[in-house]
Amino acid sequence: MAPSAVISSLLFSALFSFVVIFNGVLQPYCALGWWQWMYRVSPFTYFIEGLLGQAIGGTVINCAPHEFVPVIPPSGSTCAKYLDPFMSYAGSYLADPSATSTCLFCPYCTTDEYMFTAFNIEASHHWRNLGIMLSITAFNAYMESLMMYLISFAVHIQTISIKMCAPS
Amino acid sequence: MYHWTTLVMSQLVVELPRNMTISATFFCCYWTIGYSTGRAGYTFLMLFVAFPLYYTTFGHGIASMTSTTPCTSQLSSFSS
């Protein structure tokens, strides 16, 4: 497609960024919209999901003092009573559940929660992802054989037969 | 001369020792940045075994269906 190495390298960077963008991390899965099919197709999705899930999954998040969101509960209600319905849905924790004046609210409880809501990454998928990567490897090796046979080998045979049939 | 499967198999097999050599860099870089030992096994499998296997076989697959080097680089960037 490209007429020279310079143009092909230009196209390479443009198209490779395309692949990287749709792996669900640079552009989060929930923001992809119509492009979600590309997220499913890109092998980098499974590679990143496996690695990131393994690297930071299954860990408890502890908010630093400046990361807590201060929330004021209605009078006569404790923080736990006020925020429990929301927390059981969204997942988060309170510095002091029995406080009544200002609740210190940390939006995330575990890294799994954060990665799932933000990037659709589940650490429990890690063996599935390794399997997908190895399956893609097997598919690549199969395609190499097939294409070598269909294109290179067939073209070779064709060239030989053309040479043999050509009138000298 | 020789069968075409010989070419394919040798291309695949010759990459294995090279990949394993590169994988040895894992032991230099993983612990020095402070990652935990309990998570090392899967990371090694994914990043240093499955991924090199993936991209070398992918490169071979693309190379087998194209005629020139620019064409190969074009296709591999498009579909990786």
UniProtKB/TrEMBL annotation, chain A:
- Residue ranges of every copy of the CDR ABC transporter domain listed in the record: 110-154
Instruction: Cite a single Pfam family from the UniProt record.
Output: ABC2_membrane
User: Is Membrane set as a keyword in this record?
Assistant: yes
- Write out the entry's keywords from A to Z: Membrane, Transmembrane, Transmembrane helix, Transport
The record places domain ABC-2 type transporter transmembrane at 2-52
Q: Which InterPro entries match?
A: ABC2_TM, PDR_CDR_ABC
What cellular component terms from Gene Ontology apply here?
membrane
What is its subcellular localisation? Membrane
Q: Which residues form a coiled coil?
A: none
Q: What is this protein called?
A: ABC-2 type transporter domain-containing protein
The lineage's top-level taxon is Eukaryota
* MF-aspect GO terms: ABC-type transporter activity; ATP binding
Q: Which species does this protein come from?
A: Suillus placidus
Q: How does the UniProt record describe the way this protein sits in the membrane?
A: Multi-pass membrane protein
UniProtKB/TrEMBL annotation, chain B:
Which domain of life does this protein belong to? Eukaryota
List the keywords (alphabetical).
Membrane, Transmembrane, Transmembrane helix
Q: Does the keyword Transmembrane helix apply?
A: yes
- GO terms for MF: ABC-type transporter activity
Transmembrane ranges, per UniProt, are: 20-37, 44-63
* UniProt domain ABC-2 type transporter transmembrane: residue ranges: 1-78
**InterPro entries from the UniProt entry:** ABC2_TM
Cellular localisation: Membrane
Record's GO cellular component, any one? membrane
Under Pfam families, the record lists: ABC2_membrane
Query: Its membrane topology, per UniProt?
Result: Multi-pass membrane protein
Does Transmembrane appear among the keywords?
yes
In Swiss-Prot or TrEMBL terms, this protein is called ABC-2 type transporter transmembrane domain-containing protein
